[in-house]
Amino acid sequence: MTADIRGNALSCGAEAARRLDAASLKFHNYLADPIADLDALLAEHPDCVMAQALRAGILATTTDRTFAAEAAASLEEAERLAPRANAREQAHVAAVRQWMDGDLSGATERWGGIAIDHPRDLLAVQYGQLGDFFLGQSHMLRDRVARVLPSWRRDTPGYGFVLGMHAFGLEEAGDYTRAEAAGREAVAINPRDGWAAHAVAHVMEMQGRAAEGAAFMQSTAPGWAPDSLFAYHNWWHLALFYVEQSDIAAALRLFDERISAGGFGQALEGIDGSALLWRLWVLGHDVGDRWSKLLACWSPRRNHGVYAFNDVHAMMAFAATDDRAAQDDVIGTLKRAAARQGTNAMMSRDVGLPLASGIAAFGRGDYRAAVAHILPVRGIANRFGGSHAQRDIISWTLCEAAIRSGDTAMAEAMVAERLSAKERSPVAQGWAIRAKAMARPIAA
């Protein structure tokens, strides 16, 4: 029996524990390649149950069926080894099983429970935050981390990661001042912490501080970009700052040189690619043949139906390229998912299906139908996960659809909402000018 670097008991030997800490560190930093490190560890220490549980959890939380078989194999081995593991390790294995079985909420609560009992279990804290993110639970992103903070000191290994996670939770809960301070401190502690840098980017995105946001991401990139499995998302944030400054050419260069650098081999990468191109395409910008790269990502996944958030972003690519057969496939996938059990059934039914239908309507030029499908889910979109910045694409699409539909009242309402959040945004001001051209006389 031994322990990890933060004192959590492990049922493996000291050498396996040391190597597990090293692989876990890469996961905490979202650096390449923790799976390769775990494979090497397991080749020599095949009875390390936490290595199998970590491997399964990393693969499972990609929300990508492409990795499901590999995740299942690791989980089955972890379950075989679990009887000789301690209670904390067994709880980790059980959490991954719940996630793999489609109970994302139950898995997230189990990881949260592990963190309550073992507040320095950084893996439990991180998995809990990932679960809250995929569930769109904004306040739990803050509160689940706040529960464990009193058990951490600045000299505790990994303190910066907890601070960065708390920063993201504070931002999603709307506490921007504290979020920015915590995020900046976490980056100062560990410049490689891309999650902490991304928390600060979220603050600036929500506050409409595009120029500052771009400068911050550019200045911190030498720390978080090298060897990062998360850099594509931070480059996406930088691209959004460029779009808000009307520098479309810079945003497209980032797509070409950075965001698409991984070839969109994972659904999470495809989400950011679709989200950027859709924003530009909706505004009428020419994105060239860039959608083809997203089609290569989404076409093999259009029948997966594991996470409605993915399906909606797949629909963006198919709507923008007018692939009606693929659009029908996505709608069918969402309908089947909605009829099943599990967390994704609710996500697909409540948000995914109407939102994907609205995006498809926008793509075929039926803007009134787009508004009719999308507007009712505007207030409950958190149910299908993601961050405020990611779900902002809903308001973005509604503004453009309302203006194109010719519905003056709806256009004025959507633009007024946008201006209240980002008054100085050139994109919002552009919508305001167009809406004003449609304006009706105000009744006396």
TrEMBL record:
Keyword field: Repeat, TPR repeat
Signal peptide: none
Gene3D superfamilies linked: Tetratricopeptide repeat domain (1.25.40.10)
Keyword set includes Repeat: yes
Entries under InterPro entries matching the protein: TPR-like_helical_dom_sf (IPR011990), TTC38 (IPR033891)
Protein family (similarity comment): Belongs to the TTC38 family.
Protein name: Tetratricopeptide repeat protein 38
